[in-house]
């Protein structure tokens, strides 16, 4: 997860456009947000906990107004806890080339090994982020220019990374050779010198009136500065492994990935699900918002009428990407309210995009039964998640997955449904319809990881957190982490 935005432009407020771009990417992370601006001499950074609208006040935006390059980030934590000091972008200063900041979407597999090497060389770390490992690695990598430094530094890292790096005069975007996480390029026809934009999703380009140009290719580095836009293949890309969950859940339905509008792909998932797992019922409902397209598709293919059965409060965040399980569970009841007249006495097919931990599904089914549902049949428009993710999703342990070690019937009993069925992997790939199945990472379903992962199939996102720290410890003032200037 995480949302990334970057822009190079003259004659416009690049921080303000970045702000709007982050708004469009808020669904990708809701824990913290930050913007870094390069003004030709230095890099100013503001970052703090909260949603984009909470982090950036008018006075803060005024302080970021000068500059021609900027990057922004919305965070969903997969390495390091949800703390202000772990917000992105992360600042760094190269001893020769000067200041910069980096924003990262993904997870590094070998971050711990690189961190220990740097610590042995006397490098000190302030956070538990694998992103800080990248920042410190950039600081301690020699090179004649930023492009050479970045190529050498990222030649040492393994895992998932779509990154935006801002220097005093440029924005540099790069994507790992597998292409795990999305990243795209946009163009704004501005008078004089046109603006170039990079973003995690095309929906952010739409927000700033940018035209989609193309995706950043796996293993590609894109540089945006006063010379325009240029790119090079900095790492050889063999097998592509785009995260299939971008199509199922993560990305916004109005975004386009691999030339596929995700709303259409999710409708087709519902069609396939209805063909594979029919059941007699009176109505089909979606679990809003992410389950709605597949529910509409299921209704179209089955001939069973679609109804809204649950109303979602638009002021409650997405529960799956809440950093704490207790917040996820509490958010379900706050977020969804049943339409009792639509549900009472009905046999209900409830369609969701995924079942991860199972606690949310169990609570929703209980809400539907309390509303008078005669039967509740859960249909899931993705296969069972049986394996942890090491590439940028906060599921680092099989202990967090309800499908690990349980049959479908056992899961059904656990969540309290009358029946349960998942979409098969072949049907999912038919619905996506983008080339061959081996172009996607689907390791969370089948355990076939594109890169070597820890043998114990466990990952501790808090591995580098200070064990003496706790949420009860007084935090430093927000100003200590939310605003800084790194001079050249």
Outline the biggest β-sheet: 8 strands, antiparallel
Helical stretch count?
17
**Mean pLDDT over the full residue set:** 88
Which strand-content bin applies to the residues? Answer: 15-25%
> How far is it from the N-terminal to the C-terminal residue, by CA?
32 Å
Write down the overall geometry: globular
Give the low-pLDDT segments. Answer: 467-488
Estimate percent helicity: 25-40%
Number of strands: 24
Rg calc: 23 Å
The strand line-up of the biggest sheet is 11-9-10-1-4-2-3-24
Task: Report what the structure shows.
This protein is α+β, with helices and mostly antiparallel strands and 488 residues long. Helices cover 28% and strands 24% of the residues. It is globular and about 70 Å long. The C terminus is likely disordered.
Features:
488 residues, 28% helix, disordered C terminus, 24 strands, eight-stranded antiparallel sheet, globular, alpha+beta, 17 helices
SSE arrangement:
Layout: E1 3-8, H1 14-24, E2 32-38, E3 43-49, H2 52-55, H3 58-63, E4 69-75, E5 90-94, E6 98-105, H4 111-120, H5 130-139, H6 146-154, E7 162-167, E8 171-175, E9 184-188, E10 195-199, H7 202-207, E11 211-215, E12 220-225, E13 228-233, E14 242-243, H8 245-250, E15 256-257, E16 260-261, H9 262-276, E17 283-286, H10 292-302, E18 310-312, H11 325-335, E19 336-338, H12 340-343, E20 347-352, H13 359-370, E21 375-380, H14 408-415, E22 419-422, H15 425-432, E23 440-441, H16 443-446, H17 479-482, E24 483-486
Parallel strand pairs: 14-23, 17-20, 20-21, 21-22
Antiparallel strand pairs: 1-4, 1-10, 2-3, 2-4, 3-24, 5-6, 6-7, 7-8, 8-12, 9-10, 9-11, 12-13, 15-16, 18-19
